[in-house]
Write a structure and sequence with these properties.
Layout: H1 8-15, E1 32-43, E2 48-59, E3 65-71, H2 74-77, E4 80-81, E5 87-88, E6 91-92, E7 96-97, E8 102-110, E9 115-125, E10 138-140, E11 143-146, E12 152-153, E13 171-185, E14 189-190, E15 194-196, E16 201-212, E17 217-219, E18 224-230, E19 233-239, H3 245-262, E20 269-274, E21 283-285, E22 288-291, H4 299-307, H5 324-338, H6 373-392, H7 394-408, H8 415-424, H9 431-437
Parallel strand pairs: 1-13, 19-20, 20-22
Antiparallel strand pairs: 1-2, 2-9, 3-8, 3-12, 4-9, 5-6, 5-9, 7-8, 10-11, 11-17, 13-16, 14-17, 15-16, 18-19, 21-22
Helix pairs in contact: 3-4, 4-5, 5-6, 6-7
The structure holds zinc ion (ZN).
The site of zinc ion has 4 residues, from helix 5.
Length: 456
């Protein structure tokens, strides 16, 4: 296996200051400031959401752009209707589906620092989703969960039935103004950043999150709320079938343990909500966790999903090309908190793409055999990180990861840069470990830090 050191600084200067170094093996963030305001009306009994999304984008690239790619996962599930025109700055535009979920919206030569507003009316008729999507957007047992549910700035890609189906980038703000067609209790809506809700019962809620790369919420008129403060973070747990206290205990332990290990949790609240599905896979969104009914108080699952608030929520990555960056670290974190090791039987590279396993658009794939996704990316990922931790020693390893989180908070990370950061954070020779667990990997040395001298 070849290890290549890419001199990033040289590349940067060779191509000139206009070029942002391309990411190796991962999605490069579109250079936008983005803010979403979604006004929606929900018929809880019918599972129907009528929404109008206003997306405000400012071009932060150095060149003009002529289109925006939006990921719209509900289209792959058959839930989406868009029969009103999309407008850009008030003018109707002709959009194009370039993959089954990628909506390309033309923006007329948007210059650097220029702002445009895209208006997208859409409707979702939600039904029971396949297992991989059961905790994302789904309607089961009277519970409506919304995850990966609205058109969001992304890279042009296809949906896939194994792993995470969407790549998104930190927005300045995502705001949901939700009305329900029927009166329900105040706690029927579980969302992060709840800024407005009825006193006891009603039909209007507002949720607003800043510095998040996505936004999920769950609606269930039978929800009970368990809330507590954890070191200044408001923890809210919404459940129907069990008391939320056991879940809150686990989430509290994870918040405390992972803040110590990887740096402070950066948002003011964390919400966990039980979805309607008995099984399938629980799912993480920034400040929000959707738990399937069989896993509401499962120690491993709650710890794993809270860990995603660091590895995915704060540190983005291309979850299709490099799923080990979020899943390997979340598995490692859960086991670290539980004090247990991995027990894996895979021979596949830890840095396998999700496409290494055959799957359909929204179903299928080998998730759980020895040769499957979990063993290779999650469990063997933990074995890999544990080997790196042993070689570096605990102090150096955790300090390096905390620094990695600080440098990249709310941005996008790649495996090649992480490996370069780890290698630069220790005198230990990590290359034999990289060779043993990774295929076709690259190590990108960290950018040199410049000290700016203030001239008085
Ligand atoms: Zn995960």
């Amino acid at each position: 296996m070849t290890v290549r050191f890419t001199p990033v600084l040289l590349l940067f200067f060779a191509l000139g200051a206009m070029v942002v170094p391309a990411s190796a093996n991962g999605a490069t963030a579109p250079r936008f400031s983005q803010a979403y305001v979604i006004k929606a009306t929900l018929d809880v009994e019918a599972g129907r959401l009528e929404a109008v999304e206003k997306l405000t984008l400012t071009n932060r690239a150095f060149t003009a752009i002529d289109h925006v790619d939006l990921s719209v996962i509900p289209r792959a599930l058959g839930y989406l209707t868009m029969d009103e025109p999309v407008t850009v700055d008030g003018d109707e535009v002709e959009t194009e589906w370039t993959t089954s979920i990628n909506l390309r919206v033309p923006v007329d030569h948007l210059e650097p620092r220029e702002t445009t507003t895209i208006r997208l009316p859409f409707r979702l008729d939600v039904a029971r989703s396949p297992d991989a999507f059961a905790a994302r957007t789904s309607f089961e047992n009277g519970v409506l969960s919304f995850g990966h549910w609205f058109p969001i700035v992304s890279t042009e890609h296809e949906v896939y039935g194994l792993g995470d189906p969407q790549i998104s980038f930190t927005a300045d703000e995502i705001r949901l103004e939700l009305e329900t067609t029927d009166v329900v209790g105040r706690d029927a809506l579980a969302c992060p950043g709840l800024v407005s809700a009825p006193e006891e019962t009603g039909t209007s809620w507002i949720c607003e999150s800043t510095d998040v790369r996505d936004f999920g919420f769950v609606v269930n008129p039978s929800f009970r709320l368990a809330a507590r403060d954890v070191g200044g973070t408001e923890l809210r747990v919404y459940t129907e079938t069990v008391s939320g206290e056991a879940t809150a205990d686990l989430a509290e332990q994870a918040l405390i343990g992972l803040s110590e290990a990887f740096g402070d949790y950066p948002w003011e609240d964390l919400v966990l909500a039980e979805v309607g599905s008995e099984g399938g896979f629980s799912m993480e969104y920034p400040r929000m966790i959707h738990l399937t009914r069989d896993k509401v108080a499962d120690t491993y699952v709650v710890y794993h999903e809270v860990a995603h608030q660091w590895f995915y929520g704060q540190l983005g990555n291309d979850q299709q090309r490099e799923p080990w960056l979020d899943e390997g670290f979340s598995d490692f974190s859960a086991r670290y908190l539980m004090g247990i090791g991995e027990n894996q039987c895979s021979t596949r590279p830890v840095n396998s793409e999700v496409f290494a396993w055959k799957a359909d658009a929204t179903t299928g794939g080998d998730w759980s055999s020895c040769d499957g996704y979990f063993h290779a990316v999650f469990y063997r990922g933990t074995e890999f990180l544990t080997a790196v931790r042993s070689a570096m020693g605990d102090d150096a390893f955790f300090a390096a990861i905390r620094e990695w989180v600080t440098i990249n908070r709310f941005g996008m990370t790649t495996g090649s840069r992480l490996l370069g950061h780890l290698a630069a954070s220790t005198d230990a020779d990590l290359e034999p470990i990289f060779d043993a667990y990774l295929a076709d990997y690259e190590v990108v040395a960290p950018r040199r830090r410049h000290t700016l001298q203030k001239i008085i």
